[in-house]
Specification:
Layout lengths: L2 H18 L7 E3 L8 E4 L4 E4 L1 H6 L1 H22 L8 H10 L18 E6 L7 E3 L1 H8 L14 E8 L1
Parallel strand pairs: 1-3
Antiparallel strand pairs: 2-3, 4-5, 4-6
Helix pairs in contact: 1-3, 3-4
Protein name: SprT family zinc-dependent metalloprotease
Keywords: Hydrolase, Metalloprotease, Protease
Pfam families: SprT-like
Length: 164
């Protein structure tokens, strides 16, 4: 776990404790998050998960905004309970009042999508390319059949693939 990330999480908790004049339970912090989300707060598990790729690519803003955003969810939950909206006024109060940050709901980090292989299936219809995922291609190998919606013929693997 990068030391800067843990330090920022702790700093956010210390700011909240100073602001609200009460202690808060510290979460488990994990870098096991992939995909488009920069961070996720699991309220009932008291767990923060962060995306290591987005952290590496956007370190300064990530530490400033994303970490505070996720910690604010835990603080709001500990202060106000479970009946609040995720980005409601309680969470916004913490973002503005405690961290002096804009209460942005979403990040604007560039997301690098993984490339995926598509398996090209066809039917007798003109210009009929049906790109199947690896999972669907495997189902066909196990005996599953897919039909063209237009001509109702079984789609057949062309032997071609493409990477998207």
């Amino acid at each position: 776990m990068p030391e800067q990330l843990n330090t920022r999480v702790e700093d956010c908790f210390l700011l909240a404790e100073s602001f609200f004049k009460r202690p808060f339970k510290r979460p488990v912090v994990s870098l096991k998050l992939r995909g488009q989300k920069a961070g996720v707060a699991h309220l009932y598990e008291n767990l923060l998960r962060f995306n290591p790729q987005l952290y590496r690519e956007n370190t300064e803003d990530f530490l400033k905004q994303t970490v505070a955003h996720e910690v604010a969810h835990l603080i709001a939950h500990q202060l106000f309970g479970e009946r609040i909206q995720p980005h409601g006024e309680e969470w916004q109060l913490i973002m503005r009042g405690v961290y002096e940050l804009p209460p942005n709901r979403c990040h604007t980090y560039a997301i690098k999508r993984r490339s995926v292989t598509r398996y090209i299936y066809r039917c007798p219809c003109a210009e009929s390319d049906f790109p199947f995922s690896a999972q669907r291609h495997k189902l066909v190998a196990q005996g599953r059949r897919y039909l063209c919606r237009r001509c109702r013929h079984t789609l057949v693997y062309s032997g071609e693939t493409r990477v998207e």
